[in-house]
Amino acid sequence: MNFEWVYPEIGLLIRQRRKRLKLTQEQVASVTGISRASLANIEGGRQKVLVHQLFSFASALELQPLDLLPPLTSAVPQAVPGMKFSQGLNSKQKAQITRLLVDDSIQTTKEEGNLAKQTKRRAT
């Protein structure tokens, strides 16, 4: 199972929280002991986050480390088995497409179930 999708998700959570707290990249980078460029790369999903960095980010952003981890349901490539995405798409775009397809298939299944119930009622 490939978990590369997790890094852009963590970066997005870090960026959102940093902005919510009105902190600059320089401020967070200084507190966590990394360069501003590294933080920019982490926020952009281009650089992996080490476990000790996750704890450092959580402390700097007044969170628990678990708050910076996306839910496993965000596992985009596994959400629709066999689905292949264009290499030009980023993880956020892949997640949006997958959500649309998965939500649509769930809705279609529900509608089919309702139709079957209505057909059964008419037959009796």
Q: How much of the residues is beta strand, in percent?
A: under 5%
Major beta-sheet overview:
none
- Counting DSSP H or I runs of 4 or more residues, the number of helices is 6
> Structurally, how many domains make up the residues?
2
Describe this protein's structure.
By secondary structure, this protein is mainly alpha-helical. It has 2 domains: 6-70, 434 Repressor (Amino-terminal Domain), CATH 1.10.260.40; 74-123. The chain is 63% helix and 0% strand. The protein contains 6 helices and no strands. It has helices spanning 6-20, 25-32, 36-43, 51-60, 76-79, 91-123. α2 crosses α3. The longest helix is centred in the C-terminal third of the chain and has 33 residues, at 91-123. The termini are far apart.
Helix/strand layout:
Blueprint: H1 6-20, H2 25-32, H3 36-43, H4 51-60, H5 76-79, H6 91-123
List keywords for this structure.
2 domains; mainly alpha; 6 helices; elongated; 63% helix; 124 residues; 434 Repressor (Amino-terminal Domain)
Quick structural gist:
With 124 residues, the protein is mainly α. The chain contains 6 helices and no strands. 63% of the residues lie in helices and 0% in strands.
